[in-house]
Structures are given as structure tokens and as C-alpha cells.
Write a structure and sequence with these properties.
Radius of gyration: 20 Å
Oligomer: single chain
Largest sheet: 11 strands, antiparallel
Number of helices: 3
Distance between the termini: 61 Å
Helix content: 10-25%
Low-confidence stretches: 1-59
Number of strands: 18
Shape: globular
Length: about 240
């Protein structure tokens, strides 16, 4: 049998946000109170089967590159900073892209923070994450982002699992499943939902339009290059020097 592809409806389309609730009756949700979560593969309601790479008679390219669904798959020791100023540095953490959950282990249990809004930052394996509100087309959603450029205005990275490709010849399809992951950049401004930022001049000038003339001058001076994350980081860093009040 040939390998078939299963389309995962991404968070930028119609997938509902996966939320975890504290299982503490009568208690206020707290990041330190957690609930046991199921493995991400159990979220089968988010998958829409298709034949090969076609969907409703239209050929669809497989977006993204093959990658892992975990950052910190080996459970590195991390640091969690809370909005109340306290910190936790005794958790072994990983980020689950498929479920969009920050997870940790407690004995044999895999747990997730029950109230991610109370997290300021989560750092593991050299990556720093924040839980942010963002704009997805015409809707406002929330999820985890990696911080690529810190500051008043932040360049954020959202990783999304776009496809599952199970091996039907394998005796354990789940263990042999391959994942395609795509990346999206967002600009986070204080007090506003983060907005998508493309790697091109037009998108940058639109998002950073309150200093359009300065940004245009900077782009001309640096060769008008907006090709990758490194270019976006430099632009956001420069923008922060302008928007320093």
C-alpha cells in the first residue's frame, strides 16, 4: 500500500484552540495547578483525510518541511517565569507543536499548564516562549510563540504542524508517523494582538507603518532585503530603537 497523507487543519485556518483546564474543584486556575493531558495523537478530530495530496478535487501541495512535533523532546530542565514575578526552575519541559501546549512531567504523568495566561515566559533548550493573543484572519486566538527578537515590540515565531504522513505498512503507524511543520512570523505590539508578518518589504512597511519613512530609509540603506528571519529580526530591532517611548 502506498503512504497516504492526512491533512491537519492548521491553527491559521479552522482548527479550534486546544485548552487545558485545571482539575481542582472550586480552586482558581493557577499555572502551578495542572491537569493530565492525553497524547497529541489522540486529537483525531483535527484531521481531515484526503486522497494523496488532493482535496475536493484540487491538487494541494504539502506545505512545510519534515520535522518533530516537540521542542525539547528529551525533556530538558527549563525555567518558567510567572506574571506575578515568581519563577519555577525545577520542571522538565517540552513544547508540543501539535497540541500547542507547554508540557512537563511529574512521575509517569505528562502534564500541561492549566492557565497559560499567567505565564510570562517559558525557557527550555535555548528557546523562550510566550503565550500571546494573536489575529488569525478575522478571528482573535491565543497560543504559544517563540520569541525571536525581544523588546517593546517582539518578533514572534509560530510553528504549525500542517500534515501527518503515517506509514500504513508499519505495524505501529503512530510511531512511524512523519510530520510536516510550517513556520509563521508575527509582530507583537504592547496591548494589541500579534499580527502576521511576511518576509517581504510590503508586509514590513505595513506592520511598522507608524515609522514608515524611517523604515523605508533603513531598508534602502541595507539593500531592501527582507528574505528571512534574520532580516526580520534586524528590522524589528531597529524599529524598537525608534519606538522606544
Amino acid at each position: 500500500m502506498k503512504t497516504t497523507a492526512i491533512l491537519l487543519v492548521s491553527v491559521f485556518m479552522v482548527i479550534p484552540a486546544i485548552k487545558t483546564h485545571a482539575q481542582v474543584t472550586g480552586a482558581k486556575p493557577n499555572p502551578k495547578n495542572t491537569s493530565v493531558i492525553s497524547d497529541a495523537a489522540r486529537n483525531q478530530s483535527s484531521f481531515v483525510p484526503i486522497a494523496g495530496t488532493s482535496f475536493v478535487g484540487v491538487q494541494m501541495p504539502l506545505q512545510g518541511v519534515e520535522g518533530q512535533i516537540y521542542i525539547g523532546a528529551d525533556w530538558p530542565l527549563g525555567r518558567v517565569e510567572l506574571r506575578d514575578g515568581s519563577a519555577i526552575d525545577t520542571y522538565y519541559l517540552r513544547y508540543n507543536l501539535l497540541a500547542d501546549q507547554m508540557q512537563f512531567i511529574n512521575g509517569k504523568d505528562t502534564l500541561a499548564f492549566a492557565s497559560p495566561k499567567e505565564l510570562k515566559t517559558v525557557t527550555l533548550a535555548g528557546h523562550t516562549f510566550v503565550y500571546e493573543t494573536y489575529q488569525c484572519e478575522n478571528t482573535i486566538r491565543q497560543g504559544y510563540f517563540e520569541v525571536l527578537e525581544p523588546g517593546k515590540n517582539r518578533l514572534l515565531l509560530k510553528r504549525v504542524v500542517t500534515y501527518l504522513i503515517p506509514d500504513e505498512n508499519s505495524p505501529d503507524g503512530q510511531a512511524s508517523t512523519r510530520y510536516l511543520v510550517d513556520e509563521y512570523y508575527f509582530l507583537g505590539k504592547p496591548g494589541k494582538p500579534a499580527v502576521k508578518l511576511l518576509c517581504n518589504r510590503k508586509s514590513v512597511l505595513s506592520a511598522l507603518g507608524d515609522y514608515k519613512s524611517e523604515m523605508e530609509h533603513y531598508l534602502k540603506k541595507t539593500g531592501n532585503k527582507v528574505h528571512d528571519a534574520a532580516d526580520l529580526r534586524k528590522l524589528v530591532a531597529y524599529y524598537n530603537t525608534l519606538d522606544s517611548k
